[in-house]
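Table 4 source record.
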Amino acid sequence: MKQLAQLQWDFQDYLLGRSESVLASVESSVDLAAAERLAVYRFAYGQRLIEALGNDFPGLLALLDEANFVTLARRYLAQYPSRHPSLRWLGQFLTRYLDSGMEDGLHPLAADMARFDWAVAQAFDACDQAPIGMADVFALPPQAWETFYFVFAESLSVFAGNAAIGDTRRALLRAAAHDAVPSNSRTTWLVWRQGEEINFRDATTQEAACLALMRKGGTFGEMCHCLTAGVASETPARAAEFIKDWVERGLVVGLGHDAALSY
């Protein structure tokens, strides 16, 4: 008789479609042959993976309908089988798969919907972090303003997507009548968690450039310089507008500066 550990490995290989050697260790029953008995578990395992993808990509599921989503999920899993002990990471390559063009005939919003769904899942699972407030910003000494920088919440995702994707996803999840028609334009989307609530909004090209700079460790002075591509006289006001919005929406969880202080 095989050792238990080897039997478990053989059973796992069978579920993953790598080997059928475990068949030799399974007896047939009165009603089912050994292969049929094992097939029940392989089918259930596959269905559980598809169910997990549906939970993480509810917008995509609603956009495609269940039958088309299941077909997509099976093809995706054939290319990217589960490799992590947690189902949480099962769909981490779905947007890559959709962007690759391997799926023809899908809804034109499918890839962006998957991107949006994944950002929401990431925001939901991100660790809890206490946001700063504007009082923390105002407490900075004058000499620190040029060099201060932000630490952004781990729940924040920023990505490019069709301009219609936010309203489309919201309508689909509410089962509201909505024509899922792509916009002719693309925009930058922000998705994050504030408390227990998942939020999203789009950003202008100017704000997106400033946010990208600050998320990479850029300073307030560098952001103002970035804004001088527009009307220079509006730079301080526009920079302050962005800062206030990011802080009040809970996107920022820390700040620091490189100014030398004297006491």
